[in-house]
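Pasting as-is:
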Amino acid sequence: MESERSGINADREGFDDPHIDEIHREYERIDSDWLMLHYKTTVGLVAFACIIEFALGLFFINSELLTTTVERYVLKFMLLPCVANFVFIVLDTAAIKSKRLTQKQKTYTVSLVFIIICFVLFTVHSAFSATYYMYAIGIMMTTIYASYRVTSITALSSIASIIVSELFIVWDMDKTSIFESTARMGDFLISIFILIAFSIGCMVVIRFEQKKNEASIQMESERRHLQQILQVDEMTGVLNRKAMHAALKNVEFSAGGDSYILAISDMDNFKGINDQWGHHLGDRCLMEYAKILTENCCKYTPFRYGGDEFCLLFCNVSMDEAVSVCQKIKTKLSELRFEDYPMLKLTASFGLAAYSDQIDTVRLFVHSDYALYEAKELRDTVRVFQKEAKFA
């Protein structure tokens, strides 16, 4: 449904857009399900009305209450309304199945077709005062969409159709005009007042529905924001160990169509940097390295596992491509210079291993860590775990 669905257009910038979009997609799915129920209710109304019309027709034809010819009665009160409503149902069905119409357009179509069908039934059977209140069902069914516009247009269309039918159309010649009967005039005015009051009540319901949606979006946004904070390393800004464990768990439960490679990276001689120049410089080195990892993360997700150890989780990337990316990162790190520490040169080692159905993610981490161990023996090197290795 339109952005009015949540009632927070002006405040949307204050939330996390990807999460809001996800919630709005869920609202749209619910609206879509309700739209189908709305459509099926319209079909059910037409089917029920046809059954009642034919049942009443048989009753009147076989009674002394019929004041016109059988042929005329069958045509005016049975065939024509059923055929007209059937045509509207066909149009409604075409709109629902159309790929050109948006969900918003389908919502307006289904809502107004319901009222048009009520108009046909009310015009044909307005002698029965209870037919006034079919319109209330049509108005009520639009409240789920939480749109003032849809509900107000439906309500105005309902009231207008009642006025047009009562004042300008004489379908049943035996019907007493509202200007000739105090009782019918009273029914007409009461029905108008009731529909107006009912519509106002629906608007109030929509307002509270929007407030509820706004509160749920805000709470979900804050919850996810807190979740993000808990999964982000405070110093470097990349995801932390907790987030990596969650990602590896998702790897195990993901569909078999994806392939994964885990790379573990260690800065060479990081302890020596801390001992020689102090932890403040070590922290700067970690932040700069994390910045390089973030700038080149189009094919992987970076995590800080702890200390100077970072992990890169590649998805649907070949081993050769993953190695090439690690080589590129290694080169960028070696080119990094600190103006106040011109003698400092940073290097890093990488160990890579591929995930397969034969191993779990714990074994995957062990394999990558073993490849890193081999790489650190030479320093500034990238090594890939081989199945023939010691810990295979």
